[in-house]
Amino acid sequence: MKESPTILIAPDSFKESLSARKVCLAIQRGMQKVYPEAAFILSPMADGGEGTLDAVVMSAGGVKKQLNVRDPLGRSVLAHYGIIEASKTGIIEMATASGLELLKLSERDPAIASTYGTGQLIKQCLADGMRTILIGVGGSATNDGGRGMAEALGIRFLDRNGQLLPNGVSSLRQLAKIDVSKLDPRVAETTFIIATDVDNPLCGPYGASVVFGPQKGADKKLVQELDNALHQYGELIRQNLGKDVLSLKGAGAAGGLAAGLVAFTNATIKNGAEIVMTYTDLAEKMQQADLCLTGEGKLDDQSKAGKVPVAVASLAARYDVPVIALAGSITAENAALYQEGFTSVFSIQSGVTELETAMQQTDANLERASENIARILRL
């Protein structure tokens, strides 16, 4: 590598440890010890989950705003969203309103958790004049198919007697009609983009309830009830609205919020990492770089399914930029990772350490590992 290289740092967050921006700074500190003359381009990344709001707003010159909304259990919580005035784009990270992070372990209950607060954020973006809304759907506490979001926008869910369904996902088993007559008219004038890193369907063995329900507090019995309810929901969406969300790839994201957005808006589901790369102009930054460093907390077989490091490596390959990945742990085969475009991959751990301790040391470990990589490159 040349004496005064341009180094692009574009990692995801290390979940529950460091934000993507802090990961960038730790890597930069390590590299600067060996390459003090280098030019650094810091580009925190995300895949639709944690960090999406900050990554897009910071790169696109937007501003963050806040709004009191309902949390998954109906309590008031201060949530954040972003607006990019120049392009009339709103940025929502649904977890700030409807995320698992808002609940204690004992409070997790996907039978009653609602996406209503996410709908309130959408409504506020509409009121702010945004006509494109990007919604990152990672980290949800919900399994309501986006019902709460839809209710916040004016949609009514009725039983066979024309009565409003009671709260709770299970009541969707009694769903007989979806009344969209009072849907906020601004929705039709707005483009919705769903950013996600999963492609699970709404229902079935790989659906929202079965795959993600247990981590949100569902036991086996409740998982089946939730799956049945979402299947009824999907059938009524097809009958009432002519949209087949039951066979839609990715509809199960965020407990089916993706299905609800597709059903009630003109939303399209897209790979979250690629969407964030577009909004952050990562291709332009990559063309300036002599080296790229990326990473996330864990590189595993799931990383190949649209996660940030693989998306960054794929982009780097287009411009013949070497790319190095750093991770807290690496369980995927190196050969498989190299096939994805990585020049090399490194674990930041220096020895056997308990997970809690390792997470507390992430900042220092990233800095040390980056310095070691830089010393090899300096040779």
UniProtKB/TrEMBL annotation:
<dbReference type="InterPro" id="IPR036129">
    <property type="entry name" value="Glycerate_kinase_sf"/>
</dbReference>
<feature type="coiled-coil region">
    <location>
        <begin position="352"/>
        <end position="379"/>
    </location>
</feature>
<dbReference type="InterPro" id="IPR004381">
    <property type="entry name" value="Glycerate_kinase"/>
</dbReference>
<dbReference type="GO" id="GO:0008887">
    <property type="term" value="F:glycerate kinase activity"/>
</dbReference>
<comment type="similarity">
    <text>Belongs to the glycerate kinase type-1 family.</text>
</comment>
<dbReference type="GO" id="GO:0031388">
    <property type="term" value="P:organic acid phosphorylation"/>
</dbReference>
<dbReference type="InterPro" id="IPR018193">
    <property type="entry name" value="Glyc_kinase_flavodox-like_fold"/>
</dbReference>
<keyword id="KW-0418">Kinase</keyword>
<dbReference type="InterPro" id="IPR018197">
    <property type="entry name" value="Glycerate_kinase_RE-like"/>
</dbReference>
<keyword id="KW-0808">Transferase</keyword>
<dbReference type="Pfam" id="PF02595">
    <property type="entry name" value="Gly_kinase"/>
</dbReference>
<protein>
    <submittedName>
        <fullName>Glycerate kinase</fullName>
        <ecNumber>2.7.1.31</ecNumber>
    </submittedName>
</protein>
<keyword id="KW-0175">Coiled coil</keyword>
